[in-house]
Amino acid sequence: MMFGDNLGIFRAVDIVKNTTADEFKTVLMGCLSPEEHGRFTIDKLHLAPYPIDDCGTQVAVFKFSPAIPSFLKKVAAGEKKHIRDQEGNLIEIDANFWGLTQLNHPKEEILLDIVAISGPMNHAYGAWSGVESNGSVQMWLQDFLPEVPDLGSRCRIMIYGYSTEADDLGTYVAGFLEELFKARRKLHQQTRPLVLVGHSHGGIIVAEAFVKASWEKRYKLIHLSTVQIFSFGVPYKGINPDQIDIVKSSHGAAYFGRIFQETQYITQNLEFFRHLLKYTDTQLSSFYETQQTLKLGKLDIARENSPIESYGMVVDKNSAVLGLPENLEEDHNVDGDHISLIQFTSRTDRTYTTIIGLLQRLLGTELRNKVLTRKSS
């Protein structure tokens, strides 16, 4: 799967709160051309509250089969599409998933917020998705985790997407924190325990956000509410830009040049991040890849200009694990490369079951009391 691939998944926002899945499916099917009727089906559709408007509207994640219908072709290329429901209300569709997207609709009291952010050029949704042999897309944060008894129904699960056009890490961090702040601005949300999940450069954004929120008054409660961080292939101690596939990005070389500089920056400030984890007793679960990642190099003229394939370890264990005391950090090896280490197609996947076990253990503790104790100290 390519870094930026959305796997044919689209997002719709501004859906009226009481709209059912069947009603929205009818709206989508009504957008098909006469030639497409009878040939296309919707094989994936999830509705959830939109996290930043007091639950006044819903967000939908959906996928058509066997291909992308004509009315979504330009959306797949990066444009937005506007359609209307049966009452004439405007709905916006995109494929970028920028900002926060809520993935589930908890049926019980929400005890935990989980927010995941992927690495550079990883699609905000597609990065966490595995593809089955029959082509079905399984996104474990949406398809598996919400179904776990006594866990999924008590967690609000969100992903965060961002453009890679910014010039510095601070811009990404500021955007991430502001969206989190808006999604948690109600009084009962402000001290809700928070789990941050970061992959690759997304984990660098998480680390910097954790640090920035510790001293910026507006975001202080985000810092105090963070009870656990999951990091997947996060280059805490630097990254080798030669091991990254830069060919798949239209602005890859320049962007990864900035990424390399920013990872050096977080490396220089690593001790402060370590200190804050220890001071707040925030748990860190570090997952590292054990397989090399495919990258594309120069064109091979002898093979009709096809890319030369090679493999390399993007983030090794030494860089992905901070080396904190055992009571603060657990490290886990993953049977995957830098891309697949966050993609699971089975509920029995070894890494997935480890994550579930850690979350269940976390939910069994007095989380909110821990947050309130931090706040009062």
TrEMBL record:
GO terms for cellular component: endoplasmic reticulum; membrane; mitochondrion. It is found in: Endoplasmic reticulum; Membrane; Mitochondrion. SUPFAM superfamilies: alpha/beta-Hydrolases (SSF53474). It comes from the Eukaryota. Keywords: Endoplasmic reticulum, Membrane, Mitochondrion. PANTHER family: PROTEIN SERAC1. This is DUF676 domain-containing protein. It comes from Orbilia oligospora.
